[in-house]
# Entry
Amino acid sequence: MKTMILFKTMLFSVLLFNLPTKAGAQTMKQEELDKRVLQFLKDKQQQWHNLNVPYADGQLLHDLIIKNNYQSALEIGTSTGHSTVWIAWALSKTGGKLTTIELNKERQREAIENLKTIGLSHIVEFKLGDAHQVVKEVKGPFDFVFSDADKDWYIQYFKDIDPKLKKGGTFTAHNVLQSISGISEYLDFLSQQSSYETTIDKTSRSGIAISRKK
# Structure
């Protein structure tokens, strides 16, 4: 009888020891997600058109969020979701959430399907509408913003978001190395913002203005 009790005790201990911890299970789940997202991004790397960012710029946005542990993000201009995937993927690692705004219903529908396919849609709140108005209405606060909608409205987007952006947060804007209406005015505007420190990332030909709130 004592032998049987001892055997059961040892068996229980072995099983208990080999049970995955909550942290371990979460790590495995994240690793699986990472593999799935990375494969998705690589498979579609040459297929992102329709106003989407280059692969290198998506990587940059992802890395900025991870480096600064940002957790509340806003994207202005979803398109079909390339940058959305990169941002949501980063937020899956920091425990954050993303709100993304798109004007075109068909593009938004495709973006939603892309995020569902890789298992990141639960991190994203999709808003359909004119960003000119929606940006004014979103609550915040945010610690990361990516602006990639109409360039001649960049200044107004910045002004609308500034009160909702946390200190230490970052406002990023796409296509700042390109000759597009509104870009030179936006860069001049940024040079006058003493409460922000701005750098221009030139990894791609598009360019991203990275403005960190002091």
User: Anything to note?
Assistant: The chain has eight helices and seven strands.
